[in-house]
């Protein structure tokens, strides 16, 4: 009887939270046509495009064809959707929201007299734009492709559509079983070495530095190498490296990230998991960070030979890093890019865990003057600079930032006691020895377990 009443309560809660969730699945016959989406960029940029593609299909009452991933970005990864995300789960989980198919039916393609019409919508377009400008084309052509689909939907939508975004991003987009299994293995191995660990997304790859227009003291060699990469973006303006650093638009060096963490109170016995691709400058650039934190690990170090099948695919490697960063006790970003925003949002949505973002604008001047002050003074100034950037629960305010970083409209408004969370981190910083926390294991392979956990979240 208690189990029966509990199941009824879950259904009622689900209905109240997502009133449109229980409508019948959209029939392909009633669809206004087929929507093809070409996502662009790296893994996390494409993730934002996929999330918004589902919402646009809902707005247009269209049948979404599983999005096509970018094979021509800087990372040159030829992975398709099915290689990164669990496609069956994606289609079935969203069946009551949007009709999704793997490809346009052959009979529909045969009836078409012309190739699919292609168009690109402006960035951050409102739902009304899709209704007024895109829907008539879809109705006329029946099959429509939207190209370079990244951030093509407005950030602020009505509550129903925002919650659909949450269902896509945090529940429907589940990595494939091989990625989930290896990612979780790395989490378990880190936990065996240390009761707590920090994940740091360095984002100090050559493409990032070239795009930023910043300079890090490498002379003519650095200027030439990054200048050549910069030519990939024909529309980038000429930038002053000194001005960009003063504005806080330059990623911190690995050494500066390490100094910031030590100044905030993390001791040299802290375990670091460093998520990154190829670091510009290689081992020479990383050495100062390793000296500050000798317990330094990467996916290559923790996974060993198990990583070999993933090595040719940058997006699958990024997905493994994503899992470990998401499960870490503290996540530290080095820029506010796609991975940083999505992970910060995920860690808020799934239950608050700390995400530290460097206040680069204020820290830049401090780092340039650090040799003119003693360590105690420097540490105090770093802590002052970082107020409001330490991932405190109250930092999430309605209307602040982009949806992917601040999914406040999808988080229950019931009171939640954050004191235990904050105390745990304060204990860690002060050098105490907390007990081993249970891993959240959100990357489980059993879909029924995931659905159960989703229901628990919505309760």
From TrEMBL:
Domain of life: Eukaryota
Name of the protein this chain belongs to: O-fucosyltransferase 29-like isoform X4
Species of the source: Nicotiana tabacum
Species lineage: Eukaryota, Viridiplantae, Streptophyta, Embryophyta, Tracheophyta
